[in-house]
Amino acid sequence: MKRITLLTLAALFSTAALATPETYLIDSTHTLPRFSYSHFGYSTQLSRFDKATGKIVLDRQAKSGSVDVTIATTSVDTGSPLFNEHIQGKDFLDTATYPTATFTSNTLKFEGETLVAVDGILTLKGISKPVTLAVTSFQCMPHPMLKKDACGANATTVVKRSDFNMGKYAPHVGDEVTLTIPVEAVKE
Questions:
Q1: In angstroms, rounded to a whole number, what is the distance separating the alpha carbons of residues 133 and 140?
Q2: Consecutive 10-residue runs of the chain (188 residues): their mean pLDDT?
């Protein structure tokens, strides 16, 4: 009986030794955070940021990790150069003072083997607020072109722009903004 117990313990420790965090660097060409909001009730406007960097540390066996994303707010793309300039002004992103936004997390939530949410802190215009990103898809596998392991996910949350000192024109221009972050990251 003791022999089986020792073998079982040895197996558990060897499995734990295999659980190591893996670091993935964000692929900026496939990570383009988007935001959408109601424009006077006429339509839902969709814009994006063209530059995002960061890393994801993932320990799939321990179901833990961290996320660090930096978004260049100066890379906002609304589809109109004039509106890009307007959004970058003091009433909204104030990119002259705050050229980046960040999301950081040390709390990944899994259901079984599936990542379903990431709790973290969103810092925008110098204001930090807790947010939960709902993960709507998550996959890790060898990248067919890069021949390296890669992970990808789509995550979304809703924030109020007035919480980040950007409430001008609310409620006519929607105060609630849906943030969607499609992310791809390649193993370091």
A1: 18
A2: 45 53 97 97 97 96 96 98 97 98 97 95 98 96 94 97 97 96 96
Calculate the CA 94 to chain-centre distance. 21
Q: Is the CB of residue 184 less than 8 Å from the CB of residue 20?
A: no
Q: What is d(CA 161, CA 166) in angstroms, rounded to the nearest whole number?
A: 5
pTM: 0.87
